[in-house]
Amino acid sequence: MALTTASLAALTTSQINGLSTTAVNLLSATLVKALTTSQAVALSTSAIAATTATQVAALTTADTAALTTSAVAAFTTTELRGMTSAALGGLTTSSVAVLTTTSVNAITATALGGLGTSNVAALSTSDVAALSGLQLGKLSTAELAALTTSDAAALSTSGVFGLSATKVAGLGTSNVAALTTSSIAALTAATITGLGTSNVAGLTTSEVAAWSVAQLNGLSTNELVALTTSSAAALSTTGVFGLTVTKIAGLGTSNLAGLTTSAVAALSGALFNGLSTADIAGLTTSQAAALTTTTVFGISGTRIGGLTTSSLAGLTTSGVAAISAAAIAKLGTSNVAGLTTSGAAALTSVQLNGMGTAELIALTTSSAAALSTTGLSGMTATRLVGLGTSNVAALNTSAVAALSGAQLNGLSTAELAALSTSDAAALTTTAVFGMASTRIGGLSTASIAALTTSSMAALSASTIAGLGTSNVAGLTTAQVAALTSPELGGLTSSELAGLTTSAVAALSTTGVSGIASTKIAGLGTSNVAALSTSDVAALVIAQVGGLSTAELAALTTSDTAALTTTGMSGFTATNIKGLSTSDVAALTTSQVFGMTSRAAGGMTTAQVAGLTTSAASAYFIVLGS
Description:
Oligomer: single chain
Distance between the termini: 181 Å
C-alpha cells in the first residue's frame, strides 16, 4: 500500500530524520511538497543528497528557507538544476554562501533569477565568475546592482556578452567601472547603448581604451559627451578613426580637446568637417600639429576657418601646404596674419592665388619675406598686387628675382616704388624686358640705378621711354654704357637732356648711332660737348642735321676733325654756322667735299676765311656743284 500524505504527516521529525536514502528516494513530488517545514529540515544530509531533481522541484520557499547550510551544501548539481526560482529564493544568504561554484553554475538560468538581491550579494566572487551569459541575463537589474565591485570584476567575458542593454545599465556605475577591459570589450554595440551617461562617466580610462569602433558608434551622443576628458584621452586611434561623422561631433568640445595627438592624427577630412566650430576652435596647437596632410587637404572652407590663430600656427609646413585652394580662401585675415614664417614659406602658388586681397594684405612682413620663390613666381598679376606696399617691400630678393614682367606690370606704382635696390638688382633681364613703359617709371630712382647693366640692355625701346627724366638722370655710367642703339632711340628729348655729362661720356659708339635725329637736339650743349670723338665720328647724316647751332658750337676741334665725310653731308645751311672758326680750320679737304652745296652756302664769311687753302678750294668746288 502506497504512503499517503496523511500517513506522512503523522511521521515525527525523528522518524523523518531516520528515513533511509532509499526511502526518501521513493517519495513522490506530491509527498515531498506535503512535507512540513519541520519535516523537511529533519531530513538527513545523506537523504537530501539522494533526492531527485523532480523531488527538489517540489520544495517550497518555506522548505528551502528552513534548510540548514549543511543540508543545502548536500544538494547535488542535478538536484539544484531541478530547484524552482521560488525555492531558490527561499534560501538564506548563509545557505547561498555554502554553495560551491559548480553548484551555482548548475542552477538553471530561469531559477537563478529568483535568488533575490540579498542572495546574489551572498554569492562568492568565484560563483559570480562562473555564471554564464544566460544566467546573468536572467538576473533582474536589482540583483545585478547587488553584485559587489569585486563580483563585477570577476564576471567572465562570455557572461558580460550575454547581458542586454537594460541589464548592463542595471549593474550600476561602480560595477560597470569595475568590469575588466576584456569584459568591456565583450559588450556588443547593441548592449553598450544601455550603459547610460552616469555609467559612461564612471568608466576607467583602461575600459574606454578597450572600446572597439562598433562600441563607440553604439554610444548615444549624450553618452559620448558624458565621457570624462581623461577617458576621451584614452580612446584608441583605431576607435577614433572609425567614428562616424555624427558620433565624432557627439564627443563635445572638451573631450575633443582631450584627445591624444595620435587620435587626432587618425581623423579623416570628413570626420574633421563633422566637428562644430566650437569643437575645432577647442583643438590645441599640439593637436593641430598632429593633423596629417591628407586630413588637412580634406578640410572644407567652412571648417578651416574654425581653427584658432594659435592652432593654425601649429600646423606643420606640410600641413599648411596641404590646405586646398578652396579652403585657404576661407582662412580669414586673423589666421593668415597668424601664420608662422615657416608656414608662409610653405604656401604654394595655388594657395596664394586662392587668397583674397584682404588675406594677402593680412600677411605680416615677416611672412611676406618668407614666401618661397616657387610660390611667388606662380602668383597671377591680379593676386600679386593684393600683397600691398609693405609686403612687396618685404619680399626676399630671391623671390623678387623670380617675378615675370607680367607680374611686375601688375604691381601698383606704390608697390613698384617699394622695391628695394637689392630687389631691383635681382630682377632678371627677361622680367625687365617684359615691363611696360607705364610701369618702369614706377621704380624709384635708386632702384633703377640698381638695375644691372644686363637688365638695362634688356629694356625695350618702347619701355625705356617710360623711365622719366629724373630716373634717366640717376642712371650710372655703367648703365648708360650698356644702353643699346634702339634703347637710346627710345629715349625722349627731355630724357636725353636729363643724362649727365659723365653718363653721355660713357655712351657707346653704337648706342649713340641709335639716337633719333628728331631727339638728338635734346642732348644739350653740355652733353654734346661730353661726347667722345668716337661718338662724334659715329654720327650719321640725320643726326648731324638734328644738332642745333649751339650744340655744334660745343664740339671741340678734335670732335669736328673726327666727323666722317658722310656725317659732314648732314650739316644744314643753318646749323653749320655753329662751327667755330677753329673747328672750320680743322676741317680736311675730304670733309669739305662731304658737305652739301646748301650747307656750304650757309657758312659765314668768317668761317670761309678760316678754311685752309686746300679746304677753301674744295669749298668753292662744292659751292659751285
